[in-house]
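Schema walk-through. Below, the input block comes first and the output block second. Nothing else is stored per chain. Lengths vary across the set, and this one has 589 residues.
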Amino acid sequence: LGLGGRMSWAKADVPTPSREADTDKQAPTDSNLATPSISDNDLDEVDLPESMGMVPGSSLRETPLARNRSWMSNADMSSPTASSSLTPPTTPLALDSKDFDGPLSATSTSGSDPNNNSSSRFSTTDIPPQPQFGDAEVVLAESVAKKLEERDDSSGNTRKYAHEDSSHPNWHKHKKHVFILSTAGKPIYSRYGDEQQLSTFVASLNAIISFVEDNGDTLRYFCAGNHKFVFLHKGPLCLVSVSHTDEPDAHLQYQLHYMHAQIISILTQNSVTKIFKQKANFDLRNLLGGTDRFLDSLMTSMDHDASMMLESIHCLRLPAATRTQLGNILLSARASGDVLFSMLMAGHQLVNLVRPRRFVLSPNDVHLIMNFVFSSASFRTASESWTPICLPDFNENGFLHMYVCFMSEEVVLVMISTKPEDFYKLSECKEKIHKEMTAPMGNTAAPTPLPATSVLDGITDALLNQHYSVAEIGIPCLLHFLYKAQSTNQFTTPRLDAPYNTPSERKRLFRLYQSIQVRVKPVSAKPHKVYYHVSQSETVVGWVTAGFELYATFSPLESKPVAIKACNQLLRWIKQEENNLFILTGSQW
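--- output ---
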């Protein structure tokens, strides 16, 4: 699945279509097929043409986003730090440690000069008193949470449904609730309402969980009326989704995985485990204060963002020459600082990513970074920000350090380092990157001259025209599609036009994609390599191979041969545009 096999998909109940056909034959395994075709006569026969190049969006070279989980050893990554500042620190902080599991001692560099190497012990006024479990990473997590809470409070941000509880008439009308609690029954998070006021309801959930566990089993999900209860057990935490949205339980459980990863990105898995090992009834909200908005934002995104459903990254559609020039700028600037990852994002889309050859970022970690950056107003108001962050798929037990700077209103530069004292070096890198991105483009001899005057202007123009229409593809019967390149974990999709121009219709189509995906995922009980769905509203073809994952939507009156022919036309168009739609030549060192 491209995320290290972190979850298993199971076949779920979906609305029964009026007609459907599938094939049990194996999908093509040659990733070098450009436009594999389905027989126009019957979906039971799958014919593949001779190799015509590579699958659209794939690359034989290493790509910025890899499908396997990559871990960094203790020797490659610095230890967590005790710095809690989200703004440029005047005194960089560091921790002396041999590995993540050993005791950590905090040291501080004297003065604001980054070249000053003299150090002294912290006084009691430098950091908050340590909790009884005494781990420095816990101190760091608590300090970060408090800083986030102070910033959000100062900006006047409050949760929309914080006043609701289980007795409120509107609380029961929400279609999907999410609860996080500890194994001791302590409420930690509720999507709607104040978790403290929902302690009675949370206690009931905990009683149900305990009853099943006492019988030597683990509760996964059950249905009560038109509500589905889905459970995810992750160490000392239990996550529960209560919904009546007709979503497959596999998707609901996958969303809970994301919510757990968001908590780990703030605290680290090692901290959470040690906290509850020493005190089972610890109130984790003391360490998560002010971070509810990240969980809220992530949950909202998963209700409509196809990139999370496909476990892939949505890249900004950008001329290949502009993307290549940006990659060279990011790569050259990293020489002046100890940068592990450097990426540019625009409007929740990845523009380019620079990384070391031996380390990769999973789509999960990239989504967490995007959610962390774009869901907090404090990053937009600050000229430069510096914050610790844990990337669970990269290393769930340690912190990295992230530099954030908005180059414009929607274009943000993110650089990640292993060293807590690298803020000044990364700030210098940003200055070099900004200078080169705003300089006039020098590629005037290109066959197709770029209209933008600089790289930043080119990205801004692309962001304004990011959503292309299905009419641009030239397939009259095509209404919408989702396409994912398996080798690069990147996907593309057009904007939603009529008849999907209302929120209800867009959500209905998204739910339909979820239902069909469960049927065609390769690891399900009886996967369908090709799935054909027809209803009164639309016809959808789901097609999964070793090279791509495609969901194409047509009008309900289109015949099967026409839909099959249109899918192959669509693959050819994506192949022609792949250099602009995907990042195929990621910069590495």
